[in-house]
Specification:
Chain lengths: 293, 320
């Protein structure tokens, strides 16, 4: 029983990380209808920036918020400079541009920082917390807390501020929004900025666990896709919950189903994505897309 | 008789003739590169039938490429089957698997299909490593290159080049015929307006699954040829990057265009090498920048831009 609870708890911890990357994916998808394949690499690059600042002697939280600011501006600039020229191009063209961004970030990070793994400090105490016979990693709890905080912040922002409302409107109906005086182009850029910010949070939370290297997000990105699919691509809360569920499933299946172990973990994600897509394509909390014909 | 059709036929014939002459002027290494270009072109044509003509995005065609390659490798290695037979078997197997994968994929559109196939591409290396008994695990399987038959005075690289060229020409003719007729119009109609297509009496579900199967079969044949040409298969060669490369190839080459497959194949074979020549430190960064600039300049791909230029030229001449 203890093992079971322990596995669930550590599943929730990794799940929180999947959830935060999924959250970033859902953000961009909602704001711009684009699935950003470079999301993981953008997060990785932001984390390297944080590492540089911490190594230069800045306190953790100063570096943390400075990184968020840089990531936000960076996301904004990328949308304005790189994505804007292909805004009205077919979807696949945008996908290819995102793939171009992905290889650029990956390659530049490898070039500047080398491909050797680096340890990344966590902001929370090292000592695990014991409740009964179950260990709670302090970092795991902290990461989960930070993810939930980000979610809360986003919810409040989109629900209660004028700017949030304008962003939702711009995504849903660009033409009408423009007629109401919303600057749709800038709303899209803001969407990219926020997504880059959320990605940076996820990167800095995951780096102490998996160590920092240019390919660190590859495995996580697929679980994030699985989480976003499970929770529904139109629901930020669903994405986080989906992440938690995926984390727990991954851990339990890895522990209790002998032939899967750790070797077929990605295949579990594939199976999960396929099952969700076939049974309920809009995910647990998503709304089915309705098209006018 | 100087309509666009005649011109096109002349260009195609001249290209094939030039391709036949290549083995006698190029070094073995260059020749191998061109064999690889033809192999990619077959795979890209397969993906283009699905994505370009039928409108279903796949980020997982590397999986079918790998399936084809492993079919060939296992048949030769375990059962000593003659290599010539393994190519159609690989194609048929991929046809069936692609058709079956296409059935759940039917319910998915655009983004969701891209995700499902993306997950497939990610899972394949792990699955290949898991069935170690068949696939040799991460060590892979080493094959030997087939020699030219009938006492032809060709090196095995030259022979493989001609085999690949032959398969390429046959498969391109088949695809051109398929797409130019009834079936092809049905495939395109489903892309452009599924509801109208259904109203015209097209069985959308059947056609979409079949298109998926045919597309997978093309890619599988390409994979089988690549196993022969490289004489080695290993799971990590069929990673998600390969699938992404295929998608890059068809978009750069030109969606919904048969000749686009060739342009795309040339791009994905040679541009990474040029990037390496420009910057040893970060070749992929150069590649990425090139990719993005290319999309700005030619959002419809090489074939699309050529078609546009050709149309302008024709109009200019007509105006004169």
């Amino acid at each position: 029983m203890d093992i079971f609870v322990q596995q669930v708890v550590s599943g929730l911890a990794t799940g929180g990380i999947y959830g935060s990357v999924a959250l970033a994916l859902v953000m961009i998808y909602q704001a711009t209808d684009v699935v950003n394949f470079a999301q993981g690499e953008m997060a990785m690059f932001s984390t390297y920036l944080a590492w540089t600042m911490i190594n230069a002697g800045l306190p953790y939280w100063v570096a943390f918020f400075a990184t968020l600011a840089i990531a936000f501006v960076g996301g904004l600039v990328i949308e304005r400079v790189v994505i804007r020229p292909v805004e009205n191009a077919p979807v696949l063209t945008i996908v290819i541009v995102c793939i171009g961004l992905l290889v650029i970030f990956n390659s530049v990070a490898g070039w500047i920082y080398s491909y050797i793994q680096k340890p990344f400090p966590g902001p929370f105490p090292e000592k695990p917390i014991m409740i009964g016979n179950v260990f709670f990693g302090a970092h795991d709890l902290g990461a989960l807390g930070v993810t939930l905080l980000v979610l809360l912040f986003l919810y409040l922002f989109f629900r209660y501020t004028t700017l949030g409302l304008a962003m939702r409107a711009a995504a849903q109906n660009p033409t009408s929004s423009r007629l109401c005086g919303i600057r749709v182009g800038w709303m899209l850029a803001l969407g990219w900025g926020f997504a880059a910010l959320v990605g940076a949070v996820a990167g800095m939370m995951v780096a102490p666990v998996v160590f920092l290297d240019p390919n660190m997000m590859a495995g996580i990105l697929i679980y994030a896709f699985a989480s976003a699919t499970l929770g529904g691509f139109t629901s930020p809360g669903g994405a986080v919950l989906g992440g938690l569920i995926v984390g727990v499933i991954e851990n339990l299946v890895g522990t209790y189903v002998r032939f899967i172990g750790t070797e077929l973990k990605l295949t579990v994600a594939l199976a999960l994505i396929l099952v969700v897509l076939v049974v309920k394509p809009s995910g647990l909390f998503g709304r089915a897309a309705v098209h006018r014909v | 008789m100087t309509g666009p059709g005649a011109w096109r036929r002349a260009v195609v014939l001249a290209s094939v003739a030039a391709a036949c002459a290549l083995p006698f002027v190029l070094s073995n290494f260059r020749l191998f590169q061109f064999t690889q270009v033809f192999i990619y072109a077959i795979a890209l044509l397969g993906l283009n039938i699905l994505t370009g003509f039928n409108g279903q995005i796949s980020l997982g065609h590397g999986a079918f490429y790998g399936l084809g390659a492993y079919t060939t490798a296992i048949m030769i290695d375990k059962w000593s089957v003659a290599y010539g037979w393994t190519i159609p078997v690989a194609g048929l197997l991929c046809l069936v698997v692609g058709f079956l994968f296409g059935i759940p994929a039917l319910r998915l559109e655009g983004l969701y299909l891209a995700l499902a196939t993306f997950a497939l591409a990610l899972a394949v290396p792990q699955i290949l490593k898991y069935f170690e008994h068949w696939t040799g695990g991460s060590q892979g399987i080493v094959l030997s290159k087939p020699d030219a038959p009938f006492g032809l005075k060709l090196s095995s690289d030259q022979w493989l080049y001609f085999v690949t060229l032959g398969v390429l020409v046959v498969l391109f003719l088949l695809a051109a015929n398929l797409l130019a007729r009834r079936t092809g119009r049905a495939i395109v109609a489903i892309r452009d307006n599924p509801i109208a297509a259904q109203a015209m009496g097209i069985n959308n579900a059947l056609y979409k699954s079949l298109t998926f199967g045919v597309s997978a079969a093309y890619t599988g044949v390409a994979g089988a040829l690549s196993a022969l040409a490289i004489a080695f298969v290993a799971p990590d060669a069929f990673n998600v990057f390969l699938s992404i490369t295929f998608l890059v190839g068809i978009v750069i080459g030109g969606l919904a265009s048969i000749s686009g497959a060739i342009f795309g194949a040339l791009f994905i074979q040679f541009v990474p090498n040029w990037a390496q020549d420009i910057s040893k430190a970060a070749p992929w960064a150069i590649y990425g920048i090139f990719l993005i600039l290319f999309m700005y300049a030619m959002p419809r791909g090489i074939a699309g831009s050529l078609r546009l230029a050709w149309g302008r030229l024709a109009r200019l001449r007509a105006a004169r």
